[in-house]
Amino acid sequence: MLETTRCRLYPLQNADEVIHLFTDAAIREYLGGALAWDTAECNVQEKLENARYQGFVVHRKSDHACIGLIELEEYRASDVLELSYQYASASWGNGYAKESIRAVLSNLQKQGSVQRIVAKTQRKNIRSRRLLELLGFTYCTSRIRFHAMQCVYEKVL
Questions:
Q1: Which of 65, 109, 144, 145 could form a disulfide with 157 if both were Cys (CB 3.0 to 4.6 A apart)?
Q2: pLDDT reading at 147 higher than 90
Protein backbone atom coordinates (compact mmCIF):
# COMPACT_ATOMS: atom_id res chain seq x y z
CA MET A 1 0.00 0.00 0.00
CA LEU A 2 1.12 3.55 -0.75
CA GLU A 3 -0.22 6.51 1.17
CA THR A 4 -0.44 10.23 0.50
CA THR A 5 -1.93 13.03 2.54
CA ARG A 6 -5.43 12.39 1.17
CA CYS A 7 -5.29 9.00 -0.55
CA ARG A 8 -4.44 5.36 -0.04
CA LEU A 9 -3.29 3.33 -3.03
CA TYR A 10 -3.81 -0.42 -2.97
CA PRO A 11 -2.68 -3.02 -5.51
CA LEU A 12 -5.52 -3.85 -7.88
CA GLN A 13 -6.78 -7.32 -7.00
CA ASN A 14 -10.46 -7.29 -7.87
CA ALA A 15 -11.94 -6.14 -11.18
CA ASP A 16 -15.27 -5.18 -9.56
CA GLU A 17 -13.56 -2.41 -7.64
CA VAL A 18 -12.72 -0.36 -10.75
CA ILE A 19 -15.31 -1.37 -13.38
CA HIS A 20 -17.19 1.90 -12.85
CA LEU A 21 -14.15 3.80 -14.16
CA PHE A 22 -14.21 1.85 -17.44
CA THR A 23 -17.96 2.22 -18.00
CA ASP A 24 -18.30 5.98 -17.36
CA ALA A 25 -18.57 8.05 -20.56
CA ALA A 26 -17.10 11.23 -19.01
CA ILE A 27 -14.02 9.41 -17.72
CA ARG A 28 -13.54 7.56 -21.00
CA GLU A 29 -14.06 10.56 -23.32
CA TYR A 30 -10.40 10.51 -24.40
CA LEU A 31 -9.88 6.79 -23.84
CA GLY A 32 -11.96 5.38 -26.66
CA GLY A 33 -15.35 5.71 -24.98
CA ALA A 34 -17.18 3.88 -22.23
CA LEU A 35 -16.97 0.10 -22.25
CA ALA A 36 -19.86 -2.28 -21.68
CA TRP A 37 -19.76 -3.78 -18.19
CA ASP A 38 -18.80 -7.30 -19.35
CA THR A 39 -16.13 -5.94 -21.73
CA ALA A 40 -14.65 -3.84 -18.94
CA GLU A 41 -14.65 -6.81 -16.60
CA CYS A 42 -12.80 -8.97 -19.16
CA ASN A 43 -10.36 -6.14 -19.86
CA VAL A 44 -9.44 -5.74 -16.19
CA GLN A 45 -9.28 -9.50 -15.63
CA GLU A 46 -6.78 -9.84 -18.50
CA LYS A 47 -4.64 -7.14 -16.91
CA LEU A 48 -4.71 -8.93 -13.57
CA GLU A 49 -3.49 -12.13 -15.22
CA ASN A 50 -0.50 -10.32 -16.77
CA ALA A 51 2.48 -10.75 -14.44
CA ARG A 52 4.08 -7.56 -15.78
CA TYR A 53 1.06 -5.38 -15.00
CA GLN A 54 0.82 -3.18 -11.92
CA GLY A 55 -2.43 -1.49 -11.00
CA PHE A 56 -3.03 0.83 -8.05
CA VAL A 57 -6.57 1.54 -6.91
CA VAL A 58 -6.81 5.05 -5.49
CA HIS A 59 -9.09 5.51 -2.47
CA ARG A 60 -9.87 8.88 -0.94
CA LYS A 61 -9.12 8.71 2.79
CA SER A 62 -12.00 10.95 3.86
CA ASP A 63 -14.74 8.58 2.69
CA HIS A 64 -12.84 5.49 1.41
CA ALA A 65 -14.34 6.00 -2.07
CA CYS A 66 -12.53 4.46 -5.03
CA ILE A 67 -11.69 7.54 -7.11
CA GLY A 68 -9.08 6.28 -9.54
CA LEU A 69 -6.82 3.70 -11.07
CA ILE A 70 -3.14 4.11 -11.91
CA GLU A 71 -1.66 1.51 -14.25
CA LEU A 72 1.91 0.59 -15.15
CA GLU A 73 2.61 -1.75 -18.05
CA GLU A 74 5.68 -2.70 -20.02
CA TYR A 75 6.23 -0.34 -22.95
CA ARG A 76 8.01 -1.82 -25.98
CA ALA A 77 11.41 -2.07 -24.24
CA SER A 78 11.52 -4.05 -21.01
CA ASP A 79 13.23 -1.26 -19.08
CA VAL A 80 10.51 1.29 -19.84
CA LEU A 81 7.03 1.42 -18.30
CA GLU A 82 3.91 3.09 -19.61
CA LEU A 83 1.83 5.03 -17.13
CA SER A 84 -1.91 5.37 -17.60
CA TYR A 85 -4.60 6.58 -15.26
CA GLN A 86 -8.28 7.30 -14.96
CA TYR A 87 -10.14 9.11 -12.20
CA ALA A 88 -13.80 9.52 -11.30
CA SER A 89 -15.03 12.81 -12.74
CA ALA A 90 -16.24 13.96 -9.31
CA SER A 91 -12.59 14.00 -8.18
CA TRP A 92 -11.28 16.09 -11.10
CA GLY A 93 -9.69 19.43 -10.30
CA ASN A 94 -8.89 18.57 -6.69
CA GLY A 95 -5.28 17.42 -7.10
CA TYR A 96 -5.92 13.76 -6.29
CA ALA A 97 -4.41 12.54 -9.55
CA LYS A 98 -1.24 14.59 -9.15
CA GLU A 99 -0.87 13.53 -5.52
CA SER A 100 -1.40 9.82 -6.09
CA ILE A 101 0.57 9.51 -9.35
CA ARG A 102 3.45 11.37 -7.72
CA ALA A 103 3.44 8.72 -4.95
CA VAL A 104 3.63 5.91 -7.51
CA LEU A 105 6.48 7.61 -9.38
CA SER A 106 8.36 8.25 -6.13
CA ASN A 107 7.97 4.60 -5.17
CA LEU A 108 9.30 3.48 -8.56
CA GLN A 109 12.26 5.81 -8.19
CA LYS A 110 13.07 4.36 -4.75
CA GLN A 111 12.92 0.82 -6.15
CA GLY A 112 15.41 1.80 -8.85
CA SER A 113 14.22 -0.87 -11.27
CA VAL A 114 12.87 1.54 -13.89
CA GLN A 115 14.74 4.43 -15.45
CA ARG A 116 12.11 5.84 -17.78
CA ILE A 117 8.32 6.17 -17.88
CA VAL A 118 6.18 7.09 -20.88
CA ALA A 119 2.58 8.27 -20.93
CA LYS A 120 0.22 8.90 -23.85
CA THR A 121 -2.82 11.11 -24.02
CA GLN A 122 -4.98 12.58 -26.73
CA ARG A 123 -3.83 16.00 -27.89
CA LYS A 124 -7.35 17.30 -27.12
CA ASN A 125 -7.10 16.17 -23.48
CA ILE A 126 -5.62 19.41 -22.14
CA ARG A 127 -6.15 18.47 -18.47
CA SER A 128 -4.19 15.24 -18.83
CA ARG A 129 -1.40 16.95 -20.75
CA ARG A 130 -1.17 19.64 -18.06
CA LEU A 131 -1.07 16.95 -15.36
CA LEU A 132 1.79 15.11 -17.05
CA GLU A 133 3.75 18.34 -17.37
CA LEU A 134 3.15 19.18 -13.69
CA LEU A 135 4.50 15.72 -12.84
CA GLY A 136 7.71 16.46 -14.75
CA PHE A 137 6.95 14.61 -17.97
CA THR A 138 8.31 16.07 -21.20
CA TYR A 139 6.51 16.02 -24.53
CA CYS A 140 8.34 13.77 -27.04
CA THR A 141 6.23 13.21 -30.13
CA SER A 142 2.74 12.82 -31.53
CA ARG A 143 1.17 10.01 -33.52
CA ILE A 144 -2.26 9.06 -34.70
CA ARG A 145 -3.76 6.15 -32.82
CA PHE A 146 -7.40 5.14 -32.54
CA HIS A 147 -8.26 7.83 -35.12
CA ALA A 148 -6.98 10.63 -32.87
CA MET A 149 -3.73 12.50 -32.43
CA GLN A 150 -1.90 11.18 -29.36
CA CYS A 151 0.86 13.02 -27.50
CA VAL A 152 3.65 10.90 -26.06
CA TYR A 153 5.39 12.14 -22.93
CA GLU A 154 8.35 10.73 -21.03
CA LYS A 155 9.97 11.13 -17.65
CA VAL A 156 13.39 9.95 -16.53
CA LEU A 157 13.36 8.79 -12.92
A1: 109
A2: no
Beta-bridge partner residues of 42: none
Partners of 107 in beta bridges:
none
**Higher pLDDT, residue 77 or 18:** 18
Ordered DSSP codes for 4-35: -SSEEEEE---GGGTHHHHS-TTTTTTTTSPP
Average pLDDT (63-72) is 98
pLDDT of residue 104: 98
Q: Report, in this order, helix, strand and coil percent for the chain, each rounded to 5.
A: 30, 40, 30
Please give the mean pLDDT across all residues of the chain.
95
- From CA 69, how far away is CA 91, in angstroms rounded? 12
Position 1 pLDDT exceeds 90: yes
Q: Which residues contact 132 (CB under 8 A, 6 or more apart)?
A: 119, 121, 153
- Show the domains of the chain with their CATH numbers: 2-113 (3.40.630.30)
Helix (H, G, I), strand (E, B) or coil at 151: strand
Quick one: average pLDDT of 148-155? 96
Is the separation of the CB atoms in 6 and 99 below 8 Å? yes
The C-alpha atoms of residue 118 and residue 84 are separated, in whole angstroms, by: 9
